[in-house]
């Protein structure tokens, strides 16, 4: 007998519905678990990334603090920071550390003015009532370990402090201007035997000497500009350097703070104490034509002109403006960017205006890339041996730089710096593949960060160049 009378038959459709519900429930549970797992992973990755960034920035900060006292450790920490997390902050710190390796303590004698010839071979440093002449050929030769400590000559003859110096592109003509209002023209054809060619004296009033505030020379040294504290700027023909001939004069409302002249002597830029920045066309008959004013939102204090006369920088305490002079009658403001200097003491530009060096009340001059004028980019901070940098100079190609202040003058050989910046990690490891961080230093500078996240747990030291890169 099969079924009892009245017994219910099992509903096959109910079993199917139950199984379907169970499958759907299991699928939903699986999806929820996957979603929760992904969310957990995202959060874990986010926290790990934050910890990695914080560690990298902390190591970069320690590297900056150690840059003077322990350069080797600073280099290792800076490279570790870039390997752990490469961003603008860590890369800038490592570039600054590596750039320091390209500097030399040139002279400990205080200097208020420096100048370089176009090829970077001849240097001038001014202190007190004289200017020292240096031949950098030996200094720039890496094969010569013992560098000369003596200057090759001194330009003497001023009665007061020299506050303005200019050197022609070929290094053969020099202008030195002093607080007594006298500008001396020198022949430096033989750097070891300078010849005083002539002297130009600014007009004076009954009480005060009209001190020389700024001087400039054209590329060939045949045109000179001299700015006095009374606001007068005069152009001079130095074709016969023994007999300077005045070409023209411009009058300003206040004393001149800075002055620039193009290679062809056709255009000049002046900065007054009141902050006015003016371009002057010197090709017109006397007096020169004033084609344009260049302005920044706040008072301008310094300016620089590229040798080719196509780029002008104008700076104040916080910002720098980049002006394009392809059409000299209509300057175009290509960019305005912030600078961390608190004030602007001096500026220098390469021949084509693609690199700028800015100085102020800091122990570092800031090197900027202006090859894309609308997007200025910080290259490196050149930390000198002085607590503040009053004067800077660049060779025509930007390969040589001088930074000067009360603590002395630093010489920078920057010819390979662009390659360092472009291949930062490679440059940092080149010749330093054995760079290591000990466990003691890791604990000191990395805190509680897990060593095994970046190297092998059983290693006694962390090989910096082999640190596992950030995979996020």
From TrEMBL:
<keyword id="KW-0812">Transmembrane</keyword>
<protein>
    <submittedName>
        <fullName>WD domain-containing protein, G-beta repeat-containing protein</fullName>
    </submittedName>
</protein>
<feature type="repeat" description="WD">
    <location>
        <begin position="249"/>
        <end position="282"/>
    </location>
</feature>
<feature type="transmembrane region" description="Helical">
    <location>
        <begin position="20"/>
        <end position="40"/>
    </location>
</feature>
<dbReference type="Pfam" id="PF00400">
    <property type="entry name" value="WD40"/>
</dbReference>
<keyword id="KW-0472">Membrane</keyword>
<dbReference type="InterPro" id="IPR019775">
    <property type="entry name" value="WD40_repeat_CS"/>
</dbReference>
<dbReference type="InterPro" id="IPR050349">
    <property type="entry name" value="WD_LIS1/nudF_dynein_reg"/>
</dbReference>
<keyword id="KW-0677">Repeat</keyword>
<feature type="repeat" description="WD">
    <location>
        <begin position="155"/>
        <end position="188"/>
    </location>
</feature>
<dbReference type="InterPro" id="IPR015943">
    <property type="entry name" value="WD40/YVTN_repeat-like_dom_sf"/>
</dbReference>
<keyword id="KW-0853">WD repeat</keyword>
<keyword id="KW-1133">Transmembrane helix</keyword>
<feature type="repeat" description="WD">
    <location>
        <begin position="205"/>
        <end position="246"/>
    </location>
</feature>
<dbReference type="InterPro" id="IPR001680">
    <property type="entry name" value="WD40_rpt"/>
</dbReference>
